[in-house]
Design brief:
- The protein is α/β, with parallel strands linked by helices.
- Helices cover 34% and strands 23% of the residues.
- The chain has helices at 11-22, 30-39, 46-60, 67-71, 104-117, 165-171, 176-187, 202-211, 253-260, 277-285, 304-314, 319-329, 380-387, and strands at residues 77-81, 84-89, 94-101, 128-132, 138-142, 152-156, 192-196, 219-223, 235-239, 267-270, 293-297, 332-338, 344-354, 360-368, 374-376.
- It has a 9-stranded mixed sheet, sandwiched between helices.
- A hairpin with a 5-residue loop joins strand 13 (344-354) and strand 14 (360-368).
- Helix 10 (277-285) crosses helix 12 and helix 11 packs across helix 12 (319-329).
- The relative contact order is 0.09.
């Protein structure tokens, strides 16, 4: 009987066994690995068989050689930059690991298997893909030579259980003042957007805010790829679907927002506003669906009207109409920052007003520095009135 921990098998030996197993149909078993080793004239000791078997098994199950990294506590991202060391982010920036991918062929094969497990294809005709894996991990991959120095894989690992507002306060994402203001935003059913750059924690914060929604309210969450996992008893999630290999069957975010409006939501949530779905979101916020919210990529709260305007124009909504609906729909903008050390925190809050031309502006209400110090802006009184 084969037992005990397996050592790492030489890459050349694993590849030789892989080629021999590919020539004959059958499942991956230690017995078949031993037969392939004998046929190749290689040693067939228990330790060698188990090492080769484990290497092949990791390559065909779960996240393959990345599986252990995905499961490590505190890891938020696993990053592959072609052959070589794999990096992880625990919230303080990328750091190298002891996992090393030896060649481009192996990285490409891993990327293709991960993407296929999410129901998409990845090849020279479709050289990039963004999918959700069965365990909820979000996988993005780009094949070489589009990606240099080799095939790139990015895994965004969802936190099991999510955060509460109090946990974000303890972690330093919130200070006591922002904790109180955000609780007021949820309690008063204000419409809000969480903004920030990539990796700033927008989804994490939005999930925590949704977790603070009263349990008797029904949340309908619309996303391109499921990432929001609020700790709430009544959540219905709708996820967009890409086209199949024949180019048919796509379901886009805009269609799902329309469906969500027919599902009696108490609060409509769009996980990330990035396309023409902004038109439906604005319409929903203006038809009695208080407390609507979502996330938006923006460098600062002041940039939000321009971003919304650009998305709405692409969907055929005139500038004046976009600003009119935005001004009537949106109450508060919550902005997250991330410093070079990887620390994330709510750095700004803004309120919404209109200028003499009827265009929407986001007025700074509070600025929070990295130490939790608060500086109030011209929108502070409006924020105080909104949150009570």
């Amino acid at each position: 009987m084969i037992g005990g921990p397996a050592a790492s098998a030489p890459t050349a030996l694993v590849e030789e066994v892989r080629r021999r197993l590919a020539d004959d149909a059958g499942g991956l078993t230690p017995h078949r690995v031993a037969e392939a080793l004998r046929a190749a004239g290689r040693p067939v000791g228990d330790a060698t068989v188990l090492a080769v078997y484990e290497s092949l098994r990791r390559d065909v199950l779960g996240a393959g050689p990345l599986e252990d990294l995905v499961r490590r506590p505190g890891v938020t991202d696993v990053l592959v930059n072609g052959p070589g060391p794999v990096y992880v982010d625990r919230g303080t920036g990328p750091e190298p690991t002891d996992v090393h991918l030896p060649d481009e062929a192996g990285v490409r094969r891993l990327a293709q298997r991960l993407v296929s497990s999410g129901g998409r294809r990845l090849d020279d005709a479709a050289p990039y893909a963004d999918v959700r894996l069965p365990d909820g991990t979000r996988c993005h991959a780009v094949l070489a030579p589009l990606a240099r120095p080799g095939t790139a894989i990015s895994l965004r690992v969802p936190r099991r259980g999510g955060f509460t507002l109090d946990e974000l306060l303890t972690a330093g994402t919130l200070c006591p003042e922002t904790r109180r203001w955000l609780a007021g935003v949820v309690e008063r059913r204000l419409a809000f957007l969480v903004t920030g750059g990539t990796g700033s924690g927008k989804t994490t914060l939005l999930a925590a805010l949704l977790g603070a929604v009263p349990p008797e309210e029904r949340l309908v969450v619309v996303e391109d790829a499921t990432e929001l996992r609020p700790d709430h008893p009544h959540v219905v999630g709708l996820e967009a679907r890409p086209a199949n290999l024949e180019g048919a069957g796509a379901v886009v975010l805009r269609d799902l927002v329309r469906q969500a409006l027919r599902m009696r939501p108490d609060r409509l949530v769009v996980g990330e506003v990035r396309d023409a779905a902004v038109v439906e979101l604005l319409a929903a916020m203006n038809t009695g669906h208080d407390g609507g919210c979502g996330t938006l990529h923006a460098n600062a709260p002041a940039d939000v009207p321009a971003r919304i305007e650009a998305l709405a124009l692409a969907a055929g909504l005139a500038r004046e109409a976009a600003h009119s609906q935005l001004g009537a729909a949106l109450d508060v903008v919550v902005h997250l920052s991330r410093d070079r050390a990887g620390r994330r925190w709510v750095s700004q809050l803004g309120t919404v007003t209109r200028d003499a031309a009827g265009l929407v502006r986001v007025v700074p209400a509070a600025h929070v520095d990295a130490t939790g110090g608060v500086t109030f802006g011209p929108g502070a009184d409006a924020l105080a009135e909104l949150v009570g």
